[in-house]
Specification:
Chain lengths: 432, 253
Amino acid sequence: MSGLQLKNPVLRWIEYRLPIFSFLDHSLGSSYPSPRNLSYWWNFGSLAGIALVIMIVSGITLAMQYTPHVDYAFDSVQRIDRDVNFGWLIRDIHVNTSFFFFIVVYIHVFRGLYYGSYKAPRELLWMLGLVILILMMATAFMGYVLPWGQMSFWGATVITNFFTAIPIVGDSITTWLWGGPAVDNATLNRFFSLHYLFPFLIVGVVILHIWALHRFGSNNPLGIDTKGPQDSIPFHPYYTVKDLFGLGVFLTFLALVIFFFPDSMGEPENYIEANPLSTPAHIVPEWYFLPFYAILRAVTFDFLWIIDAKLGGVILMFGSIIILFFLPWLDRSPVRSSAFRPYHKWFFWILVLDCFVLGWVGANAPDAEFHGVPFVIIGQVATAYYFAHFLVILPLLGIFERPKPLPASISEPVLSGGGMAAGAAAKPMEKA
Amino acid sequence: MNRLFALGLTALLGLGSGAAQAAEGVAIPSHSWSFSGLFGTFDRAQLQRGFQVYREVCSSCHSIKYISFRNFLDLGYTPDEIKALAAEYTVMDGPNDDGEMFERPAIPADRFPLAFPNEQAARAANNGAYPPDLSLMTKARKSGPDYNYALMIGYPEEPPADVELMDGMYYNDYFPGHQIAMPAPLSEDIVEYADGTAATVEQMAEDVTAFLMWTAEPNLETRKSMGVTVILFLLVLTGVLFAAKKKIWSDLH
């Protein structure tokens, strides 16, 4: 039931040979039916896509002026800030949009966790999203090294040292990653090259992610399938305009930070040029990695005799994301939305809190104390809880939780009490 | 609950590391600056005074390597004044057609000359300590301008009795670890301000800090004024989009 009627003969000529307009119409247009009850939590997917575009455009522009060499990188960034026309603006946009990108994506992920968007038949959609997240993290990490400040250098040193934890081949792999015996010019060069490449890999996986999304359409706050035309509305104009409004709000917050607090989420230490002979007092990753950093440092003891504390930390850190790939099978509850899961709803919020606690622990030195409790202890408890949530709580909830009764259809609660016929209400609005 | 919220916010904004740093140092008192706030701007007279302090006091040890003479147009100097200022300094140029390096008077396009030709020379002249470049100093420390100001006025007459200073070190209330290789740089009337402002230590510390905020971010004023326009535009745009959303969705509810 393609609703696309092209009046313009040129467009019709193109459409006949390359049906791109009907493709777009089916993807984001009036021929893409979406659940009528999507809340504003569903805005964050499109925001993530737009953040990716902003990152790529500003990044390509920065690359025209940036010099990936240990002797010139820091100075070239200063030149961008001082002498390149509006270079400061482009750099502030790139840096701060990266932070907002993570905020938006984390909200998008937790939205999926709350409403069970990872459940059948959307498991691959969820897993492709996790692949995007991992690619984003790699991209962000390498990007942070490029300005060649103190945190760039020491962050790169600490993170790449993870790989030395791998038994037997760890040291060789690390040397291979560095391109030499230490983080140096070869490392900076390859990080620049890969930092430029990875966003396009992300674009590729995003296309797969959207493809998988369109197979069954969006999940929704009720977590039940659409049962007929009365349950859905055309994506355009309803969700295009809603996404545009969300974009306006997003850009306003983004501009507020870019123009008035451009350094608020960065480390002052990175305004000091990298110096391999001077280690900063506290090496901390960017804030969006802090929870993972806390998990890494939570392991202070050896497992058995083959896994030492360092390797254990690395395994848990990567495991904290890998485990999410198994989420569709760890959560056995047939009900998607937490709105109808009286216990899962609370455990979800405890998990959110747990992630904040991990982030807070990651920002503090492990030997520091909070009211007499060492941060490393808090980090260990929070790490244990994180894994317990997925490995113990979710499987048990699937067995013991009694979900509330689900509504018969999406349109029933939305239109309950309304006199309007559901079918008529779902008719797309007249448009040219 | 408030604490939880604060924790969350701390984690979210990555300010936690600041708390960790503050834990080992002393809380830095906040100071009011003409350039802080959403509409803050530099005070040109203050920047010129600060430049004078930098030039007559700090520049004997500290460089501002990212600043060229031409940048001083921002401070309110005329092109002729800048040419004359640059001509007071000599810079190394070359090689010439005979392959020789030669000295010539600086021009506005030249960088402000470095205090020392290299780090080794700086250390040799300063008892092994390295006076850092100040171009980005107000951005390279937590609460940079406040810290910078506090550091300069933070030299007590006598160090606390229980402190044993290492050789060649001085006591500072705000420097991490309290032992700093820089002696108190400012003293009453160490400069004579051209505009007649009384050169107290606090006044000079404030002026030179403002100057260093400018060296760290010469575009600060452009950024803020452009920000006001952009935010106003986005507020209107978002309002229009909200109205459009309301209108389009009105036939659904």
